[in-house]
Design goal:
144 residues, mainly beta, 1 helix, 10 strands
C-alpha cells in the first residue's frame, strides 16, 4: 500500500504544472496617488481617491469609482504595454453581465490610461513605489 502511494506521489507532480508569475516587483496591489500631465506641467493629487491597479500573473485589474476593468499586459525591464481592456460585468447570467470589450478609452482615463494599447516607461519600480510614464502622463503609485 505504501509503495502505491509513493509511486502516485512521484507521478502526480509531473502530470500537472503550476504557472508562477515572473512579474517581480510589479505584482501586487497599487494605489494611484498622483498624475502629472506632461504637456502642461499640471498635476492632480489622487491620494484620497480609491483608484487601484492590481497586478497578478498576466492580468491587470483596474478598480475605482464602482467599476472594474481587466487588461492584458506585457513588460520588459524598462517598459509596460497594456492592451485588450474589458469591462468586468461580473456573471454572464445577468443582464449586461460578462466581460465586455472596451471600445471607448474614455472609461479608462481615471486610471491614467489614454489609449486602448498604452505604452509606459518604467521610471521607478520597487517593492513599494512605482512611477510610469506614457507619452502624455506620469503616474505615481504606492504599493498596498
Amino acid at each position: 500500500m505504501f509503495l502505491a502511494f509513493a509511486v502516485m506521489g512521484l507521478l502526480l507532480p509531473s502530470s500537472c504544472t503550476i504557472e508562477a508569475s515572473d512579474n517581480g516587483d510589479f505584482d501586487g496591489f497599487w494605489h494611484l496617488e498622483r498624475v502629472d500631465t506632461l504637456t502642461t506641467g499640471g498635476s492632480c493629487d489622487l491620494s484620497d481617491m480609491q483608484i487601484f491597479w492590481g497586478v497578478n500573473h498576466k492580468l491587470l485589474r483596474l478598480q475605482g469609482g464602482g467599476n472594474g476593468y481587466y487588461l492584458r499586459f506585457r513588460q520588459t525591464s524598462d517598459s509596460l504595454i497594456t492592451s485588450s481592456p474589458y469591462f468586468d460585468g461580473w456573471h454572464e447570467d445577468v443582464v449586461g453581465g460578462g466581460d465586455i470589450p472596451v471600445t471607448d478609452v474614455g472609461v479608462l482615463y481615471q486610471y491614467g490610461i489614454r489609449n486602448l494599447e498604452e505604452h509606459f516607461v518604467k521610471e521607478t519600480l520597487s517593492g513599494s513605489h512605482m512611477v510610469l510614464r506614457s507619452p502624455e502622463l506620469r503616474l505615481y503609485f504606492r504599493k498596498f
